Each structure stands twice: as C-alpha cells, then as structure tokens.
C-alpha cells in the first residue's frame, strides 16, 4: 500500500474509533499488530508481558483516540510512541533481577539485524536500519539503549562507562544525523 | 532537549523540568512532536512478531466492555471495569461485525459459600492489614493524581493503579504466608532517622521492604538490600531509590540459598547494583 494512502486510512480509522466504532479498532489492530507486538516484545523479551502491554495499548487507543491530533503527526507515530512508552513503563515495574538476567541472556542488543521477511515492514525497516548503520557505532548504541531499554542518559553513561557529557553530545548528534537521513522520507509522509 | 526527550532518555529531574516548560511553550511541543516522528521509526528495526491469535478477541472484548470512548478519570475507569464484569456476566452481545466470545470466568465462583465464610474468619488479621495498606495507597494515589495534572493524567494513573494492585496482591500473599518473617531495620550513623520493616516468606522467598527516612541517593547511586546468613557472604537483593519523601516500598525475592538469613542490611551502591557490598550501611536489622 502507498504510504499516503495508509496515512489517510489511519486517520479515518482513528476518527471512527473516536465515534466508538469497534470495527475500526479491529482494523487498526490487524494493520499494526505485527510491528507493535515486535516492538513491545523487543523491549520486554516476554511473550505474556508483551501481549498484556499490547492489550493495554489498544485499550488506551480506544479510550484516548480523541487525544490524537491530526495536525501534529502521523497516527503511526502516535501508536508507536504509546506502545513504546507502555512497554518501558512495564519494563521498569518488572522485577529488576529478572531484567538483569534477561539483559545478560540477550546477545548483541545493539546489532540491527532482522531476519523477518514481512512485506509490510521490510522496505521501511531497511531504510531505517541503513540510516542507523550510518551513524558512528557509539551514537547508535546510545540511541538504541535509550529507545529499547528505556535507559536515561545517566544510565547509558554508566552502562557504557563514558562521561555523561559525552553521552549527551553523542545522543544529540545521533538524533540530528538520523533526522537528516530519514528526513526526506518522513516529510513525504507528513 | 526535545530530541532526547522524544527518546525518553532525559534523567527524571530534567524530564520533569522539560515537561513543565512544554506545558507553556507551543514551539517546543511542536518540536517534540517532530522528533517523535523520527523516534517512531525505530519501531521498524524490531523484528515483526505475530501475537497469539486469541489476543485480538481479548482486546475486542475489553474494548467492548469499556463502552464508548471517553477521556476517563480513574473513577470512571474503575466503574468501567465493574460494568465490564457485569456485562461479561450476562454476556450481552451487542450488534457488531466482530464475533465475540464469552469470557471465561477467572474465579471459581461456584466454590461453596461455606468455604468463603471460613476463609474470611481465618483472615481477619489479614483484612485489617489490608485496610491499613489500602488507606496508605489511597493517600499516595491522591497525591500522585495531583502531581500528574500537567502530564497525561490517565496514563499516570493507570500505571499507578497497576502497581498498587500488584503491591496489594503481593502484600496480601505475604501477610497470609504461614512462614512469614517480619523484622525491623534501624538506621546506622549514616542515616539515624531511617527505619524500615522487612517481611519475607521463608518458604517462597517473596519479600517486601518498606523504608522511611533514607536520604536521597546521589547521582549514579542507589540503595541495595542484603540478606545475611551466619557464616556466609551477604546475598544481594534489589537496588532501589526512595521517593521524593524518602519513602520506599519494594518487592523482592530472597534467593533459596539465603532463606535462612536472619540479618538484613541496606547499603549505598552504584545504581546498577553489585554482587558484594562495597558501600556504607544505612540500615541494619537487629539480628
């Protein structure tokens, strides 16, 4: 599907959800469950926790569809932001020892490899992965630790054994560079 | 600032400050939104995964139980959950395109009433403890609701509500445990006004620490709980940071090899936690 087309349909779906249309939330789920579940699972590493959070996210979409402001961004961004923040909240509330264990069990957490061959995301995934891979390693690591593990700048500094100031600079530069790399594509979608 | 906030990576104090600024600055709000367009792209780098097929029905059920979308406060939501239960009970299927399965009852309501009565008599002590806890949670909840006014109110509340429920459940289980051990910790010369109570179930290892009066942990540091059995090195527990009022309520699990511990201590350590204590003791139980 054409991105613009998907975009228009997403906005329509959210309008319908606002009116209380249960079919619309089902359609939104069908459309985004794979990517949202993948994201939440990537953060939580637990199928039951991730399903619980995904349910929470859609319930929140149902309750708060009226908070979505069409003038301010893509529905996709709104959904992903909500899902990521819910997953991170859950991660923080989980047993910190279990968390340490799952972190230890995790192989190369910052490597951006994905064997999935899902048609819906492969193309966009490829673009984003390529952009991320263009960043210097230490910038990419800091951004990925923040996004997927919910670490703050101080925690990242401690984890990477780098001074806080350096981490702040890396993250800011990384984000600016990433926006340049992705900028054209995102502008197309807005 | 906005770029890092979109990643959720500002340290808590900075994040709070920035949120306050955001509430007054439309320009920064717009900038944050534009950065979110960038961070949302990270989602594409996670491998896509199919959730259980039953999840779709569960979500639609909970949405249906919810009724019309609304910007609901806590009370409306609690009422919504109750209404949902009532609705599930009578299983009214409203007209819709989505097939809807009657949810399975989780509790065995068919258990003979006599058992319920017997159980409630046996757990009078438990109920009293729970009422005390509930009062405390209600005070906390109220306070939190006031503070989160500027933020996304219902999001804050929902998280709190879940934690409270989990804590209540954990506390209830602990108090009900026949092998529960309850000990008091008092502050060392590092924090003379600090005190704590530690409860744990020797059988399952489930534990809870409630502490007051600890000074705020310095940047990069956190408190860590220790379980000490005679003649053995201390076993590490969780790290934690007290809230703004110096209060802590933390759940933990005592590892099997430390279940006969009779001394408990809290030290100040690097916030990622350590496997053997390195910092000064702040709290210590009378062994």
Number of beta strands of chain A: 0
Largest interface (CB within 8 Å) is between:
A-B, 89 and 66 residues
Topology pattern of chain B, helix = H, strand = E: HHHHHHHHEEEEEEEE
What would the principal axes of the Cα set say about the shape of chain B?
globular
Main sheet overview of chain B: 8 strands, antiparallel
Question: Could you characterize the architecture of this molecule?
Answer:
The complex is a heterodimer of chains A (190) and B (287). By secondary structure, chain A is mainly α. Helices cover 78% and strands 0% of the residues of chain A. Residues 107-120 of chain A have low confidence and may be disordered. Chain B has a domain at 178-285: Immunoglobulin-like. Helix content of chain B is 41%, strand content 19%. Chain B contains eight helices and eight strands, in the order ααααααααββββββββ. The radius of gyration of chain B is 23 Å and the shape is globular. Chains A and B meet through α2, α3, α4, α5 and α6 of A and α1, α3, α4 and α8 of B.
Which helices and strands appear, and what pairs or packs with what?
The complex is a heterodimer of chains A (190) and B (287).
Chain A lengths: L2 H16 L3 H23 L2 H18 L10 H19 L2 H10 L13 H16 L2 H13 L3 H8 L3 H26 L1
Chain B lengths: L1 H5 L5 H11 L3 H14 L14 H13 L7 H17 L22 H10 L1 H24 L5 H24 L3 E8 L7 E7 L4 E7 L8 E8 L6 E6 L7 E6 L9 E8 L10 E5 L2
Quick take:
The complex is a heterodimer of chains A (190) and B (287). Chain A has 190 residues and is an all-alpha fold.
Features of the shown structure:
heterodimer; A: 190 residues; mainly alpha; 9 helices; 0% strand; B: 287 residues; alpha+beta; Immunoglobulin-like; eight-stranded antiparallel sheet; 41% helix
């Amino acid at each position: 599907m054409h991105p613009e087309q998907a975009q228009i349909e997403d906005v329509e779906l959210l309008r319908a959800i606002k009116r209380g249309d249960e079919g619309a939330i089902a359609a939104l789920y069908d459309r985004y469950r794979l990517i949202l579940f993948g994201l939440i699972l990537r953060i939580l590493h637990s199928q039951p926790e991730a399903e619980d959070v995904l349910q929470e996210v859609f319930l929140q979409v149902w309750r708060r569809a009226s908070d979505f402001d069409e003038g301010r961004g893509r529905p996709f961004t709104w959904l992903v932001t909500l899902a990521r923040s819910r997953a991170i909240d859950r991660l923080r509330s989980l047993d910190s020892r279990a968390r340490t264990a799952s972190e230890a069990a995790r192989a190369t957490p910052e490597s951006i490899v994905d064997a999935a061959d899902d048609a819906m995301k492969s193309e966009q995934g490829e673009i984003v992965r390529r952009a991320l891979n263009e960043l210097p390693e230490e910038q990419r690591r800091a951004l990925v630790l923040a996004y997927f593990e919910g670490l703050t700048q101080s925690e990242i500094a401690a984890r990477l054994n780098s001074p806080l100031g350096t981490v702040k600079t890396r993250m800011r530069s990384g984000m600016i560079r990433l926006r340049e790399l992705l900028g054209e594509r995102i502008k197309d979608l807005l | 600032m906005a770029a890092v906030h979109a990643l959720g990576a500002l340290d808590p104090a900075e994040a709070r400050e920035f949120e306050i600024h955001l509430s007054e600055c439309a320009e920064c709000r717009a900038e944050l939104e534009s950065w979110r367009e960038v961070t949302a792209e990270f989602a594409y780098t996670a491998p896509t995964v199919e959730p259980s097929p039953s999840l779709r029905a569960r979500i639609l059920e909970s949405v249906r139980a919810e009724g019309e979308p609304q910007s609901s406060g806590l009370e409306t939501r609690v009422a919504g959950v109750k209404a949902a239960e009532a609705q599930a009970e009578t299983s009214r299927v409203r007209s819709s395109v989505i097939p809807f399965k009657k949810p399975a009852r989780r509790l065995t309501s068919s258990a003979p009433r006599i058992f319920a009565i017997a159980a409630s008599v046996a757990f009078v002590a438990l109920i009293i403890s729970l009422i005390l806890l509930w009062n405390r949670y209600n005070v906390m909840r109220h306070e939190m609701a006031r503070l989160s006014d500027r933020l996304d109110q219902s999001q804050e509340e929902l998280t709190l509500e879940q934690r409270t429920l989990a804590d209540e459940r954990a506390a209830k289980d602990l108090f009900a445990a026949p092998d529960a051990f309850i000990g008091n910790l008092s502050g060392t010369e590092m924090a003379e006004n600090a005190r704590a109570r530690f409860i744990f179930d020797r059988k399952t290892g489930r534990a809870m620490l409630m502490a007051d009066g600890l000074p705020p942990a310095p940047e990069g540091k956190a408190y860590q709980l220790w379980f000490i059995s005679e003649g053995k090195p201390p076993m590490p527990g969780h790290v934690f940071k007290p809230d703004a009022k110096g209060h802590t309520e933390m759940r933990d699990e005592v590892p099997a090899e430390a279940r006969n511990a009779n001394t408990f201590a809290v030290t100040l350590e690097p916030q990622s936690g350590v496997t053997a204590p390195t910092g000064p003791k702040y709290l210590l139980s009378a062994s």
